[in-house]
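User: tokens in, sequence out, please.
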């Protein structure tokens, strides 16, 4: 809240100082009369406790030269996302949400230290850095420091949002006519992803998984859990499998992953989910099945039509995540925890668990990347590379063996045939 402080002067007159806090710092502007001070105080309040747009400290409203084609950053970003091609409606909606909630926090601070509305042309590297700090710090409720108005963002989310902002600014650099000469996001120092503790990622030992699985009393639901942990498939992929996707009679039984469930755009017709392509291009893959998965697939495929889903509810429909999680998985986890299970795994942790078992069996990361359908090996390394520490002893032995070989003798020359 902005307030007015009257400050008497030695000559008997007074100045009227408008005072308020902005981003944790005190801001002030002085006036010779109370009426203009009150008008300015109301302007500050109307701008959400910030300097009014176009106001220069000590000078008042100053007309700023405008760049042809310039527009507010949020407006430009929204238009950029609207025109993007090659993305689905859900992704477009996610980008719009990031713009509304997070890009709207970005402000431009000019050379006179006046905070203004950020536009696609006036945005600077300092403005982007200030925004990253806001994302890192969050915002607590001034009336109750124990509560958050906006929680701090994790490093991965900040990097993803900054990546979107980079693309938006780069579009202005490459536009015709050109709106910017360089990308102010290029040198932003971002928080390290490995500084963030991913408390959600849980790896189960085989015995720990069996303790959870034993509490799933529905045989069909148990088969689905076994399939997820045994294949490492995403939930959206496994529940979209159809009988026609299976090849069980060959020497190399497999499942052809070519579709996945997608969450539809809010307010769209046709329900909350629809079938679409997998998450990435490399997620389209042929997954080799172990004998245990072949046995499950044969049992569920028996007497079914090619277009039927492999895993179905008692009513013959495909499983929905919320239904399965709340009615099958969560009760089983809670019962297992009551009996001493020290972890609280999510459904997606079955995919993580599958990887941990493969790494423990000395399966190399490139092979795991292909099995999981990761677009880049870097994704596999970043997420699971720390589990490869179990190979350190093997690496040390190999290096020792190489270094212990006989040294070449001086004066001997190789003879070629």
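Assistant: Sequence out:
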């Amino acid at each position: 809240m902005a307030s007015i402080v009257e400050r008497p002067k030695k000559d008997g007159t007074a100045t009227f100082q408008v005072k308020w806090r902005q981003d944790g710092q005190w801001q002030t502007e002085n006036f010779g009369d109370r009426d203009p001070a009150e008008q300015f105080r109301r302007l500050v309040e109307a701008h959400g406790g910030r300097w009014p747009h176009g106001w220069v400290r000590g000078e008042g409203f100053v007309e700023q030269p405008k760049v042809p084609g310039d527009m507010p950053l949020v407006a430009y970003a929204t238009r950029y996302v609207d025109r993007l091609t090659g993305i689905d409606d859900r992704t477009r909606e996610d980008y719009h949400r990031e713009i509304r909630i997070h890009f709207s926090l970005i402000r431009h601070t000019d050379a006179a230290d006046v905070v203004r509305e950020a536009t696609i042309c006036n945005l600077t590297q300092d403005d982007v850095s200030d925004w990253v700090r806001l994302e890192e710090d969050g915002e607590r409720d001034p009336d109750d420091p124990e509560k958050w108005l906006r929680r701090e963002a994790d490093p991965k989310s900040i990097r993803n949002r900054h990546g979107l902002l980079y693309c938006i600014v780069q579009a202005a650099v490459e536009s015709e006519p050109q709106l910017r000469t360089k990308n102010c996001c290029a040198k932003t120092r971002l928080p390290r992803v490995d500084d963030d503790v991913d408390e959600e990622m849980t790896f189960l030992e085989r015995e720990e998984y069996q303790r959870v699985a034993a509490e799933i009393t529905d045989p069909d639901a148990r088969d689905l859990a076994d399939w997820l942990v045994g294949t490492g498939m995403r939930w959206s992929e496994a529940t979209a499998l159809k009988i026609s996707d299976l090849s069980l009679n060959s020497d190399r039984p497999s499942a052809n992953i070519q579709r996945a469930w997608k969450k539809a755009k809010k307010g769209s017709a046709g329900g909350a989910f629809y079938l679409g392509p997998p998450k990435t291009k490399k997620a389209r893959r042929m997954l080799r099945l172990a004998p245990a998965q072949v046995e499950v697939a044969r049992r569920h495929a028996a007497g079914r039509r090619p277009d039927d889903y492999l895993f179905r509810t008692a009513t013959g429909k495909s499983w929905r995540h919320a239904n399965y999680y709340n009615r099958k998985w969560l009760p089983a986890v809670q019962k297992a925890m009551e009996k001493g299970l020290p972890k609280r795994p999510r459904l997606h942790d079955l995919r993580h668990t599958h990887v941990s078992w493969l790494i423990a069996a000395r399966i190399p990361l490139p092979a795991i990347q292909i099995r999981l359908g990761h677009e880049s090996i870097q994704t596999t390394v970043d997420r699971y590379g720390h589990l490869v520490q179990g190979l350190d002893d093997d690496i040390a032995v190999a290096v020792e063996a190489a270094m212990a070989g006989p040294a070449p003798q001086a004066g001997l020359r190789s003879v070629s045939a």
